[in-house]
Structure formats: structure tokens, C-alpha cells
């Protein structure tokens, strides 16, 4: 069972999201918050696996709340706003996913399962914007140069991270234990000087490891 904290200042939106999540027997909404500060408090007391955060909320907005919550819990940002600055800030504070509320409900369910499993998830509608925002740091030859310090196994792991696989899925694919995959992923982050799986995936994409 995946435990979820839902944070949005609009009760009707929370009810709608809860209804969508209720269609999946593996998901359980353990708490709801109406603002960012309450979300932080409930995340500390209810120990959710994934927190769904609206970007714009009173008292403390979702991005500020995500910066604190993402230190110990997976965060997915939910918003009606698709502006570049929100996407960049969400990834910068450590969010594992970014979805538009106007997206397909099935996309939300897929995102929760992916993020809970250790992967990253971006709405297809914003994924190309992430490529544009971050790709400039790692275009072509520059990206390949950054990969030159990785071992053959680390390149294999990075390729699978770029394809959106979780640590457990990578472990099964490479026939190694999940703890070893985590060690490889941590080493890749350090060598590439990135903060999360999305940034690592962008470099894999720009270097040609992932099409």
C-alpha cells in the first residue's frame, strides 16, 4: 500500500484527486492539508510515501513546502500552471514529479507508482520544457564529456535511469541487488554533479544514451 498525503487549498480539488486515487486499491490517502505549513506538519506525523503538493497555497506555497518535505519524502507537484519557472524551481527543490491538473487521471496514478518506486515522473506536457530548460547545460559533446568519468556499469545504470526505471526495476534488469543500484545512482549523481534523477536523465538524453 502506498500512503499519500494530499495538499491543496481547494477542497473541491482535493475531493476530485481523492476520487481518482480511490480507483487504485494500492493507494491510500492518509491525510489532507489545505496549505504548505500544514502539509509539512502532516508529512512529519503521518509518514506518507508520496506527497502531492499544489504549487500555489496560502501561508506557505507548495514549492517552499516541497523544499522541506523532499528531504525525507517523495514529492509530486500538482498545478494548473505550466510556466517554466515553476518547473525549474520544483526540480531544484527536490521534487520527483511534476504534473498538470489538466492531465489524464491515469497519468497521476502512473506518476505515484513510479515515484513511490524510486523513479522520477514528468507529465509529457512538461517533459519537453525540462529538456529545453536543462538541456543547455549538457548538450551533445559536453554531455558526452561529462559521462567520460563513468564506469561501464554506471553508464548502464544511467541509461536505465534515463528510461525512467526505478532502482528495483534496474536491479532486476541487471541482475544485481537494489542496494547496489542505489550506490551506483548516488555515485552517478556525484560524478555528474546533479541533484536528482531528472537531471541525470537529461544528461543521458543529450549524450545519446536514451532516444
TrEMBL record:
<keyword id="KW-0238">DNA-binding</keyword>
<keyword id="KW-0804">Transcription</keyword>
<dbReference type="Pfam" id="PF00196">
    <property type="entry name" value="GerE"/>
</dbReference>
<dbReference type="InterPro" id="IPR016032">
    <property type="entry name" value="Sig_transdc_resp-reg_C-effctor"/>
</dbReference>
<protein>
    <submittedName>
        <fullName>DNA-binding NarL/FixJ family response regulator</fullName>
    </submittedName>
</protein>
<feature type="domain" description="HTH luxR-type">
    <location>
        <begin position="143"/>
        <end position="208"/>
    </location>
</feature>
<dbReference type="InterPro" id="IPR058245">
    <property type="entry name" value="NreC/VraR/RcsB-like_REC"/>
</dbReference>
<dbReference type="GO" id="GO:0003677">
    <property type="term" value="F:DNA binding"/>
</dbReference>
<dbReference type="InterPro" id="IPR001789">
    <property type="entry name" value="Sig_transdc_resp-reg_receiver"/>
</dbReference>
<dbReference type="InterPro" id="IPR039420">
    <property type="entry name" value="WalR-like"/>
</dbReference>
<dbReference type="GO" id="GO:0000160">
    <property type="term" value="P:phosphorelay signal transduction system"/>
</dbReference>
<keyword id="KW-0805">Transcription regulation</keyword>
<dbReference type="InterPro" id="IPR011006">
    <property type="entry name" value="CheY-like_superfamily"/>
</dbReference>
<feature type="modified residue" description="4-aspartylphosphate">
    <location>
        <position position="54"/>
    </location>
</feature>
<dbReference type="InterPro" id="IPR000792">
    <property type="entry name" value="Tscrpt_reg_LuxR_C"/>
</dbReference>
<dbReference type="Pfam" id="PF00072">
    <property type="entry name" value="Response_reg"/>
</dbReference>
<feature type="domain" description="Response regulatory">
    <location>
        <begin position="3"/>
        <end position="116"/>
    </location>
</feature>
<dbReference type="GO" id="GO:0006355">
    <property type="term" value="P:regulation of DNA-templated transcription"/>
</dbReference>
<keyword id="KW-0597">Phosphoprotein</keyword>
Amino acid at each position: 500500500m502506498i500512503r499519500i498525503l494530499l495538499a491543496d487549498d481547494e477542497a473541491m480539488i482535493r475531493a476530485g484527486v481523492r476520487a481518482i486515487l480511490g480507483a487504485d486499491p494500492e493507494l491510500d490517502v492518509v491525510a489532507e492539508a489545505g496549505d504548505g505549513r500544514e502539509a509539512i506538519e502532516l508529512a512529519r506525523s503521518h509518514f506518507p510515501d508520496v506527497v502531492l503538493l499544489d504549487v500555489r497555497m496560502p501561508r506557505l506555497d507548495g514549492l517552499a513546502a516541497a523544499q522541506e518535505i523532499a528531504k525525507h519524502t517523495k514529492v509530486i507537484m500538482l498545478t494548473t500552471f505550466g510556466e517554466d519557472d515553476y518547473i525549474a524551481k520544483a526540480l531544484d527543490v527536490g521534487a520527483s514529479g511534476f504534473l498538470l491538473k489538466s492531465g489524464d487521471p491515469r497519468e497521476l496514478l502512473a506518476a505515484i507508482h513510479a515515484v513511490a518506486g524510486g523513479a522520477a515522473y514528468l507529465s509529457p506536457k512538461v517533459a519537453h520544457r525540462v529538456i529545453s530548460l536543462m538541456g543547455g547545460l549538457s548538450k551533445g559533446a559536453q554531455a558526452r564529456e561529462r559521462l567520460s568519468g563513468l564506469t561501464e556499469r554506471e553508464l548502464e545504470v544511467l541509461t536505465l535511469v534515463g528510461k525512467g526505471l526505478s532502482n528495483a526495476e534496474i536491479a532486476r534488469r541487471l541482475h544485481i541487488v537494489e542496494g547496489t543500484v542505489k550506490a551506483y545512482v548516488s555515485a552517478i549523481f556525484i560524478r555528474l554533479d546533479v541533484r536528482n534523477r531528472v537531471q541525470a536523465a537529461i544528461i543521458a538524453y543529450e549524450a545519446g544514451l536514451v532516444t
